[in-house]
Every structure is written in C-alpha cells, then in structure tokens.
Design goal:
Elements lengths: L1 E7 L6 H15 L3 E7 L6 H5 L7 E5 L12 H7 L7 E5 L4 E2 L1 H10 L5 E6 L2 E3 L5 E5 L13 H9 L1 E2 L2 E2 L11 E4 L2 H5 L14 H8 L3 E5 L4 E4 L9 E2 L2 E2 L1 H20 L2
Parallel strand pairs: 1-2, 1-4, 2-3, 6-12, 7-13
Antiparallel strand pairs: 4-11, 5-13, 6-11, 7-8, 9-10, 14-15
Length: 263
C-alpha cells in the first residue's frame, strides 16, 4: 500500500483542487492507498475545505505541534512521529501540487524491483491556474544517468570540487519521490531539529552513501504549482523569508553535505 501525506499549513485556495485531482489520480491508478491530509499545526480553517473528501482512505490529522518550522514541508515527518503511516510505500506532497495516475503507476512499477528503494520523476512548473510555465522543475541535462556509481552521482548532484560541495541542492524534486518505507531502517529518519524541509537533500544523499539504488523516470508526470503560497515565497512574522531562509538553508545544508564527504 502507498501512503501519501499532503502537507498543509497555510490557508490556501488551491488545497481543495489539488486534493481532489491527486485523489482522482490515485483512484485511476488502481493502487491501494492511504491519503493523509496533515495539518502541521497550521490554519484550522483548512478542515472546512477538505472535510467532504474524508473516508476510509482519506484521513485528516491536526498536529498538536509544528514539525515544519512554520512551513508545510515537515508534516510528513509528523506523520511518522505520530504513527499514522500504514503503507510500505510512501510519498510526501505539497498542499497545492497535482499528480497524475501515470506518475503513480510508473513509481509503483519501478519499486517492484527488490534493488530499487526510491523512484523519482520530473514535473512541470505551472502558474496558479495550472497553466504551464513551459519550464521543467529540474532541467533534464542536470540529471545523471544511473549507470554510474552512487558516489559519482553524488559528486555531480552536489558539484563536488576538491572534496568540497559547491551547491546546496541536488536534482531530486522531493514531492516527485516515492520510496519504500523500509529505506528508513537503512538511512534513518531525518533529525527533527536539523532537518531543513523539502530542500534538505542531504538526507536523500544518504541513499547514495549507502550504495542503495534509485530509479529516475524521465517523463514529467506531475505539476509543481508556483503561487503566492509557495513555501520559499512565504511571509513569516511579516517578513519575506525567501532570501533570509535561503541563505540559512544553503549554508547549513552545505555543512551537512561536507560532513557526508568526510565519511
């Protein structure tokens, strides 16, 4: 079974549409699923927008604490911490992105291999109304072919020069990831105090350092909605956080990458 956690935090007029379209994609895919709308101690009014979706497959959980540091990216950690996850496969998604049935079919097919622990695929960036920006979330030329060794993949993802990372990002778009829950027994769960939200790909780099295989699906099969609610553009305490949080994230994540290189 696949558990999908939709992370919510802010009031967002697109949550209802995204929830409906993604649940339809899951139904059309024919796979068994559990869908958790995880409100990460955010706006309680979100419940009114999604309550009519709730049934034996779709659950709503209001967290007593905030896992995502006032953004919506940490709810999936809360779902594990609150023992809500029932599936052997897992996906964490944003509150207003949209997925297709083919996305789920391709991911499930790839993960049937006993040697593949994670499947990820590209997506299109869209405007608020889901019209295309005509830009892939991850440029195809940036994705390494998976014929190389895990360490070489890491070096390309993170721009390693003279055994030091030059980027605080890699090319796995987190919402486009489906993985086996057993992966946590091999690489652990992220640390709640130091995890940097969906941008913290140091965590996913542990897969490569443990010589575990990933699958990349080259087709763009989901929609990443750029809106006024996008986490990187959020206003926190009356202050636009994109630059401030970005600088903190980049340095702290680079530090974590450099620690990995010392392994």
């Amino acid at each position: 079974m696949l558990t999908v956690v939709q992370n919510t935090f802010l009031e967002n007029e697109f949550i209802r549409e995204s929830t409906a379209l993604t649940i339809k994609a899951l139904e059309d895919s024919g796979i068994e699923y559990q869908y958790i709308i995880f409100n990460d101690h955010g706006a309680e009014s979100i419940f009114e927008d999604i309550k009519d979706f709730l049934n034996d497959k779709v659950e709503y959980f209001y967290s007593p604490i905030n896992y995502g540091k006032r953004q919506c990216s940490g709810g999936w950690l809360g779902a594990f911490d609150q023992n809500l996850v029932k599936g052997d496969l897992f996906q964490s998604i944003g509150q207003d992105d949209v997925f297709t049935s083919l996305f789920y079919k391709k991911a499930i097919e790839a993960l049937k291999s006993p040697n593949i622990y994670l499947s990820f695929c590209n997506g299109f960036k869209t405007h608020e109304n889901l019209t295309m920006i005509n830009e892939l979330l991850t440029p195809l030329e940036k994705i390494t072919a998976y014929t190389e060794s895990p360490r070489e993949v890491f070096n390309q993802w993170f721009g390693v020069i003279d055994n030091k990372t030059t980027r605080a990002n890699n090319y796995i778009p987190h919402p486009g990831v489906v993985y086996k829950v057993e992966l946590h027994s091999k690489i652990g769960l992220p640390d709640l105090d130091t995890f940097r939200g969906t941008s913290d790909f140091e965590y996913w780099a542990r897969i490569l350092f443990n010589n575990l295989a990933c699958h990349h699906e080259p087709l763009p099969l989901w929609l990443y909605r750029r809106s006024k609610y996008t986490a990187g553009d959020e206003i926190i305490d009356g202050k636009h956080n994109d630059r401030d949080l970005g600088e903190v994230y980049r340095q702290s994540i680079r530090d974590k990458y450099d620690n990995l290189l010392k392994m």
